[in-house]
Structures are given as structure tokens and as C-alpha cells.
Design a protein that fits this description.
The protein is of the alpha+beta class. The protein has two domains: 6-94; 98-125, no CATH class. Helix content is 31%, strand content 28%. It has helices at residues 33-37, 43-47, 52-60, 72-76, 80-94; strands at 6-16, 22-29, 61-64, 100-104, 111-115, 123-124.
């Protein structure tokens, strides 16, 4: 069994580059301890702890369509919807387990548990 360290994603809206091109498809890698620790030294994070997520995403997003480099200015210019999506995606691929939602089958009225996934998969338990 191969261990996946990179995961593809598709942004809901997409990043608009300087030429007006919309970039939606990208790849994010699993975070390392350094990815989460080193940005804490950055003065932007010390002034505004919320900036940690911007730096973290810039470190772990390895590709966004044809952009040559992903840096904090790219992340800063994402639409809020895409930023929130990437935060959730990051949590999903880096945390153990997936969020579970309770639901009731409309046909049989049986209660079921569904694992929610941004990776396009779900599991009924």
C-alpha cells in the first residue's frame, strides 16, 4: 500500500492571476512539524496570529494550475470562500479521522452516520 503525501483539490471559485486567468486545480502536501512551527517566528504572525494560516497554506500548497510559485501574496488574494475551503482541506488531510454527520434515511427512516470528506468520498457506517 502506498502512502499518499499529496492531495489534489479544486477551489470553489478559483484564484484570478494578474492576466485574468482563473486557477482552480491544485495540489496540497501533508504538513510537517516544521510547517506548523517555523511560521510562529514570522513577525507577521507575532503581530497577527491569524496570519499563521496564510503562511502555512503557502508552504503546503505545491501547485495551483500553471502558477510558478505559491507564496503568501497568492494566499492573501484568494476569495474568502477558497481560503475557507483550503483551511478545511488542510485539516482533513492532516488530522486523524474525518468529521461524521448523523442523518436519517428518507426511505427506511434508519439513523446513519456519514463521514464527510472534501476529497469527494464518503463512508456510510
Amino acid at each position: 500500500m502506498l502512502f499518499s503525501t499529496e492531495f489534489e483539490f479544486t477551489l470553489p471559485k478559483g484564484y484570478v492571476d494578474n492576466d485574468g486567468n482563473v486557477c482552480k486545480k491544485g495540489t496540497m502536501r501533508l504538513a510537517t512539524a516544521a510547517d506548523e512551527i517555523l511560521p510562529m517566528r514570522d513577525p507577521r504572525v507575532q503581530q497577527n496570529p491569524g496570519y499563521l494560516t496564510v503562511i502555512l497554506l503557502a508552504r503546503v500548497i505545491t501547485k495551483l494550475e500553471n502558477l510558478r510559485m505559491i507564496d503568501t501574496s497568492i494566499i492573501e488574494n484568494l476569495f474568502a470562500t477558497d481560503f475557507a475551503y483550503l483551511q478545511s482541506f488542510y485539516k482533513e488531510i492532516n488530522e486523524i479521522g474525518k468529521p461524521v454527520v448523523s442523518a436519517i434515511c428518507p426511505e427506511c427512516k434508519k439513523s446513519i452516520e456519514i463521514e464527510v470528506s472534501l476529497l469527494g468520498e464518503f463512508q456510510v457506517e
